[in-house]
TrEMBL record:
It holds the Pfam family ABM. It comes from the Bacteria. InterPro entries: ABM_dom, Dimeric_a/b-barrel. It comes from Dictyobacter kobayashii. This is ABM domain-containing protein. SUPFAM superfamilies: Dimeric alpha+beta barrel. Residues 9-70 form the ABM domain.
Length: 224
C-alpha cells in the first residue's frame, strides 16, 4: 500500500463517566460533518476503553494543503472542543504520514487496536526500523485485515505555521526532523487471529524493545 502525499490525522477523545451515549451521538455527528470537507479521503470512527471510554477518529486527507484549508471549519479537534460537557480532558490530535500499510480484502475487520508510541527524537528511527522489519514478515501479515504504520507529531499551531511558511518544506520533512510519535493500527477478523498476532515471537520482541525506550499506549477498539 503506497501513500505519497496523503496526510493522516488521528484524534483521540476521552469521555466523562456516564456520558457515553451522548458522546457517541455527538462524535458520530462530528464525523458526518467532516465527510463534507474538501480534500477528505476517508473517515473511520472507533470506540474503546483506556482508563475509561475513548473515541478514536482517523481522517485521511489528499495532501497537506487540503488539511490546512480545512482548519477553519473541519478540524476534528476543534469540533470536539465544542463538546466539553462530554469530555474528560481536551482531545489529543496528531498529524502523521504513512510508512507501511496492509489490507486483506477477503476478510472484514471485527477487532482493532492502536499502538501509540511517544519516543525521544534520537530513538525514533531505530524503533521505526524494528517495527517495519517485523511488519514485513508473513507470519504477522497473514492474521491482519486492515493495518497501517505511521509517523508524526502532535498537532499544534506551531506545526501548522511551520508548514505554511515559504521554503519550510512539507510536513514529511518536518516530521523527519521533529517527530516523536509512531502510530500502529491493526485489525483482525476474529479473536483467534488477534491472539495469533500478539503471540508471534517477532511481535513480542518488538513490543519489549519499545517498552524499554519509551511510553506506549495500546487501545483495544471496535469500529462504529
Amino acid at each position: 500500500m503506497q501513500h505519497s502525499t496523503e496526510l493522516l490525522v488521528v484524534t483521540l477523545a476521552h469521555v466523562l463517566p456516564g456520558k457515553d451515549t451522548e458522546a457517541r451521538a455527538r462524535i458520530r455527528s462530528i464525523a458526518e460533518t467532516l465527510r463534507s470537507a474538501p480534500g477528505l479521503i476517508s473517515t473511520r470512527l472507533y470506540r474503546g476503553r483506556h482508563n475509561g471510554i475513548v473515541y478514536l477518529l482517523l481522517t485521511t486527507w489528499e495532501d497537506e494543503q487540503s488539511w490546512l484549508k480545512a482548519q477553519e471549519r473541519h478540524m476534528p479537534k476543534q469540533l470536539l472542543l465544542a463538546a466539553t460537557d462530554i469530555l474528560a480532558s481536551d482531545p489529543e490530535q496528531w498529524l502523521l504520514y504513512y510508512l507501511w500499510g496492509y489490507s486483506r480484502p477477503t476478510a472484514s475487520a471485527q477487532l482493532s487496536s492502536a499502538h501509540i508510541m511517544t519516543l525521544a527524537p534520537q530513538k525514533i528511527g531505530l524503533i521505526q526500523k524494528q517495527w517495519l522489519m517485523a511488519l514485513h514478515q508473513p507470519e504477522l501479515q497473514t492474521s491482519l485485515t486492515f493495518a497501517f504504520f505511521a509517523r508524526g507529531i502532535n498537532d499544534t499551531p506551531t506545526a501548522n505555521r511551520m508548514a505554511t511558511v515559504v521554503h519550510t518544506g512539507s510536513y514529511r520533512e518536518i516530521f523527519a526532523q521533529q517527530s516523536s510519535l509512531l502510530f500502529g493500527f491493526f485489525s483482525w477478523a476474529n479473536e483467534m487471529e488477534r491472539e495469533d498476532f500478539y503471540a508471534q515471537p517477532i511481535y513480542q520482541q518488538v513490543k519489549k524493545f519499545v517498552e524499554r525506550e519509551g511510553p506506549s499506549n495500546i487501545l483495544s477498539l471496535e469500529m462504529l
